[in-house]
Structure formats: C-alpha cells, structure tokens
C-alpha cells in the first residue's frame, strides 16, 4: 500500500454546485497581481462596464417624462433573445460563464450591488480606480427617438452620479452625451461636469452624426474650458448596411468596433477639430490598437495629395493622432509581437495609451497584458497601467485598501 | 512525480469537474463520458481557470462536396474544454487548443485503482 492510498481525500471545489462569485472567478487574476507586485503602483482601468439594464427599474424612477418612465418600467432597458438585433450573442452560448451566472451572485444589501461587483473584480485584478460605462445603453444613439435618448441619458447619468459615483471614490465615469441633440449635450456638461466621479464625457460611436457639425462647437468648447476629455466609445453597429452582412459575431465585432472609431476619428482629424479646439483631449475607447497604424498611414498618404480637403491641418494626420489617447483593450496580441511593438511606437504608447479591461465583457484584458510586454520598460508599464490616466483625468491616486495593507506589511517585514 | 489520491470512483458525477490543489498546482479533474481527465486549471491565454467552465462539443460548418453550406453542427465525438474567461477551446482528449495546437493545457495522468482515483503530479 502506497502512502498516497493512506492519504485523506484532499479539499476540493465542486464546480457543479459552487455558486458564482466574481472573486473566485478571478482568483487566477489575483494571483497574477500578487506575483507582479501591483500593490506598488496605481492601476487605472479606463474602460469597464456594468449592466445598467439590471437596474432598469431604479433608473426608470429618474426619468422625468411619465410616458417614457412607464415604457422603461414596462420593458426594461434592453431586450434579449435570439431574434434581438444584430449579433447579440457575445456570451458565446454560455461558454463565457459569467454572463449567465452573474445574476445569481450574492452581494450584501449595501452598498449598491454594482459597487460590490465592481469592487470584487477590481480588487482581484489589482485595479485601483475604474471608469465605468453602461452596456446596452451604448446602442442608445441608434434609437430614432431623439427625446428618448435625451431623457434616458439624463436619467442614467443622474442615477449613476447619485447612486454609484457619489458613494465610492474609486469609481468614475465619462458620462453619456445625448449626441443626437447638440443643445442637450451642452446642458449635460453644465449639469454634471462638476459632479463627484465625473472625469469626462462620452459619445457612443455607433450613430449617424458628423462630429464636425458646427452644432457641437459649444459642447467641445465647454469640455475644453473645463479640461474634461471627450471619449468615443465604439460598438458593434451591425445595423450598418455593409456590416449587416456579417453573419458571425466574430466578423461583426472584429470589424464593427474598429470601424466606428475609424470613421469618427478620421472626420475629427481631417476637419481640423484638433486645430479648432486645441486643448480638447480626445480618447478612443474599446477599438483595440491594430486599426490606428492603418488609419495613420491611409490619412497621411491621402493628405499629401489632397491638402485642400484638410486646409486646417498644420501637420500630418498621424501627428494629430499621436496627440490623442487610446484605451488598450482588446489588444491584438496573437503571434504579432513585431506589429504590436511598432504600433506602440507609432501611437507614443508610453504617454498616450491607457490600460482598459472592458470587464466583465467577453474579450476583457487583465493588467498583465500590458505588464508582461517584453518591449516596455517599468516606467512605460506603469504609465500605461495608471500614470497616463492619472495625468489625463487629473485623478487623485487612490490605492485599493488591500494594496495599502500589503504595502504596510512589506514595510514591516523589511529589515531595519 | 507522485500519485495523489483525488477521490473514490463515483464521487465525481459524469459531466462535472472537481478542482483540487495538488502540490503547487490547481488541477481540474474532469469526468466525461465515463473517463477521467486531469488538466492544470490555468489557461495559456491570460491565465484563466480553464477547467472551471463548460465542456461542449466542437462546432463545425457542414459543407458538402459541392461547397454548399448546410448549417452548423456539433461534433459530439470531439468534446472541448472551454475556458470561461474568454472562450479559448481545448480538446478534452489531449488538452491542445483547437485553433493553435502549440497552445495546450498541462495534462496530468489519471490512475484508477481499487475504486480510487489518483493523479500523478
Ligand atoms: S484566459 Fe482562458 S480564454 Fe482567456
């Protein structure tokens, strides 16, 4: 009889009965954070999400218009099911388990469920501060009822400010701008620009308004004066006639997310908006990085032949693009290390790139996607993971409680 | 390498998985189709808990000899381990990734003896 046979049955986790819990789901992320010593520096996640549709009933109470309030109460913020919209199966038929299981996760009664869930994943990954965005509302710009966009955006913004951002200094947001109504955009900035946790404003990129329209001048000026960045958060956009031929989510996502930011960024640069609003900082969110060198090369090449199409420019389009900020996720990194390194160089990543996880969505990136890159030095890693965001958004560097505790333990253990 | 007792035969129901700490590894012991498999619970992609997700048959596009598409089908003979973080898929039989066989889950031998199940790790 071997020793093993005499041994007791070891402790185990039975996945058939274990309840879903974000901290357990991300236990391997917490190990990575430990191994890499993330407690030593600030990590800011500039693009993460919550599921505001789970709080539809709460948000409905913030809608002033009784008709729209009734509608949201009746049918919620988003609908589900296989006949819904274009490409609505990002959860991969249950393969990405946090989608079906997240609703069963237990949280204490207070604070708000979204705060608890945000903190659980942030603490596991080593993220100190997270900028949170909605999920289904990213498609609100496509709704033909402009009044609905304005009303619902305002209700969501107010709910987010009063219920979430007010309560937790580690949570931030760039609030939703109802871009189909330029005057309402300006009002939104005036109303919420100084609120705790508001670090900028966001335009959802799946929509049909040219960013160069004079109607937005007041909005851009207001942001510039307040030193608040403007972010463009991209999306699937399967309603586009060409993209609507994508019969697989993979194709739609790979192209659509890049396309909508390519479109608005190109219009932004060629219409000279960086010259018209030179202090306005723009941020391009959730389109990955591979599209940026492509657009730089295309625009530079055509600009040299057609300067009359872009007479406001004083330098090449790629030079303006190098002044812009980009979030990192979903960072394309399968067998392309040379291309990735060149991309980092072309966008001046050590100064302009901002780490983002996109958690809890299916293609989320951990901080290790940046931290483990062999061509970055320690200073560049820390800039991308937090320092650049700290400077861009003028953030107070609040470290997570568990990181501070680890720092203290290390100090105590240090000799002398 | 050391044989470590995991459980009694039958403790793990077919189609389920048990996560066990063996030495420095978290190992997923999977029972599927009456057989046991053991893989390290760490995905070569971003380090996710590969064994904690679902097992599903692979999917194939059914194309006939004339190049016509006849829909997508499950290949019930090729069960995949799906990592729950982002959906990377690995053949249950040997742990290789279905898109790039150079990526694989670390496999451990499973030994059934005298009504007990052991892993060699
Ligand atoms: S970590 Fe396993 S799929 Fe990404």
Automatic annotation (TrEMBL), chain A:
Which UniProt keywords are present, listed alphabetically?
Hydrolase, Lyase
Top-rank taxon, per record: Bacteria
What Pfam families does the annotation carry? Amidohydro_2
Q: Which InterPro entries does the protein's record reference? A: ACMSD, Amidohydro-rel, Metal_Hydrolase
Per the record, what is one GO cellular component?
cytoplasm
Coiled-coil positions are none
Listed GO molecular functions?
Answer: carboxy-lyase activity; hydrolase activity
One biological process GO term for this chain? secondary metabolic process
Is-annotated flag, keyword Ribonucleoprotein? no
The Amidohydrolase-related domain extends over 146-395
Name recorded for this polypeptide? Amidohydrolase
Q: Which organism is it from?
A: Arsenicitalea aurantiaca
Organism ancestry: Bacteria, Pseudomonadati, Pseudomonadota, Alphaproteobacteria, Hyphomicrobiales
